[in-house]
């Protein structure tokens, strides 16, 4: 699960938001479905029930239950000035979730009397869903000749006391884009690279402070929106990832050295050839005739087993950046900021999601640990570098 939120400058009218949702959902195509179980595959089927606006919860992004969501694979939540969409990743990625939220807010403000055009990522709800929006772009990118093995080592995971039940601790730092950009510019790196570098530096020092018998690599997964590289307009999930990594067994690392590794790992991975290879490796497994012939219950067992060996254990955490969010100017004056948030992972105990709107930068940590030592180290580092942050949390 992941979540995209908009904090408005006024209290949300939930009845009007429900009307906006009723107008928006028919345009969103794949979102208007529920998940069905077949003999060999899961598949999507049209959902004719009304999707309802829900009250927000102190623990966001909890697991979707069919009865609670009327079969839909997303939730629209509202509380005071906040409007959020929580989505199951099988439907879409951050780009698709943001598109839904933008379009929903455009309808909401239109109902309030604003003339909001279908620009800046807002879809026209008078149109029918387009076929290109439901394309499985992974299949188009697939190239059997580019498949090669990617070596990924077991990575360090943060230690701590795990929360029970569905508790997800959220700490969000609100800062200035320009202040962070100035720090990144000093090192000639992007904002994403700088955030990843700071995060890896904090994880590196925390691992050393634990005095482990065996020092493991620090690897942070950075999702990549593939649409810009492969000219796709799909609203389905179409992302890959890059895993910058340092091996602390090679010696001590300074922050500048870690940032150097992150910069070059990111630039090397952000090429069309490298991304094609990574996508093709996954699609090749899907096309394997033996795997296709396996009944679904065996596929579930097989995938779960492989994931336990080569999934989240190969990365210390994740940093995902939704980037600069822009909206039509008729909406902009009604919105204070956007937030982006990751749900609870299976093995990684903490994740980081980033987005910006105007000069407001939102860096959100979601964690299943009672301790907040990683978040404290991260934001303390930024403040010492002159990036001022205001912290918000659902913690007591």
Question: Keyphrases for this structure?
Answer:
single chain, 396 residues, alpha+beta, Chloramphenicol Acetyltransferase, 2 domains, 8-stranded mixed sheet
Low-confidence stretches: none
Task: Give the count of structural domains.
Answer: 2
Q: How many E-type strands?
A: 15
> What's the number of helices?
13
* The CATH fourth-level homologous superfamily of the largest domain: Nonribosomal peptide synthetase, condensation domain
CATH class of the largest domain: Alpha Beta
CATH topology of the largest domain: Chloramphenicol Acetyltransferase
Secondary-structure-derived class: alpha+beta
Which range does the strand content fall in? 15-25%
Distance between the termini: 23 Å
Helix content: 25-40%
Q: What's the order of the H and E elements?
A: EHEEEHEEHHEHHEHEEHHHHEHEEEHE
Shape: globular
Radius of gyration: 21 Å
CATH arch. level architecture of the largest domain: 2-Layer Sandwich
Mean pLDDT: 92
Main sheet summary:
8 strands, mixed
């Amino acid at each position: 699960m992941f979540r995209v939120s908009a904090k408005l400058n006024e209290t949300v009218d939930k009845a009007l938001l429900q009307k906006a949702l009723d107008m928006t959902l028919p345009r969103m195509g794949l979102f208007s479905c529920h998940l069905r179980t077949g003999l060999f595959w899961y598949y999507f089927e049209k959902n004719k029930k009304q999707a309802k606006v829900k009250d927000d919860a102190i623990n966001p992004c909890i697991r979707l239950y069919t009865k609670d969501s009327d079969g839909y694979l997303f939730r629209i939540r509202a509380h005071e000035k906040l409007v959020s969409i929580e989505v199951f990743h099988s439907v879409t990625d951050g780009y698709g979730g943001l598109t839904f939220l933008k379009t929903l807010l455009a309808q909401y403000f239109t109902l309030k009397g604003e003339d909001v055009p279908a620009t800046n990522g807002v879809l026209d709800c008078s149109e029918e869903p387009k076929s290109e929006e439901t394309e499985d772009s992974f299949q188009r990118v697939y190239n059997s000749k580019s498949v090669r093995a990617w070596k990924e080592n077991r990575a360090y995971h943060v230690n701590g006391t795990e929360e029970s039940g569905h508790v997800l601790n959220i700490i969000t730092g609100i800062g200035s884009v320009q202040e962070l950009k100035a720090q990144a510019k000093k090192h000639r790196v992007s904002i994403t690279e700088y955030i990843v570098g700071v995060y890896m530096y904090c994880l590196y020092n925390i691992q050393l402070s634990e005095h482990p018998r065996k020092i493991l690599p620090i690897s942070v997964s950075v999702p990549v929106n593939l649409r810009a590289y492969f000219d796709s307009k799909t609203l389905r999930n179409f992302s890959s990832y890059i895993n910058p990594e340092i091996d602390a067994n090679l010696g001590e690392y300074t922050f500048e050295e870690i940032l150097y590794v992150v910069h070059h790992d990111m630039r090397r991975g952000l090429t069309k050839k490298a991304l094609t290879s990574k996508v093709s490796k996954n699609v090749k497994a899907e096309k394997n005739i033996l795997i296709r012939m396996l009944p679904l219950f065996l596929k579930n067992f097989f995938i779960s087993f492989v994931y336990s060996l080569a999934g989240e254990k190969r990365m210390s955490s994740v940093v995902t950046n939704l980037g600069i969010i822009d909206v039509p100017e008729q909406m902009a004056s009604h919105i204070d900021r956007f937030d982006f948030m990751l749900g609870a992972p299976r093995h990684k105990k903490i994740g980081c999601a980033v987005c910006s709107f105007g000069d407001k930068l939102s860096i959100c940590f979601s964690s299943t640990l009672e301790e907040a030592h990683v978040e404290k180290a991260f934001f303390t580092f930024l403040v010492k570098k002159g990036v001022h942050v205001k912290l918000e949390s659902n913690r007591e």
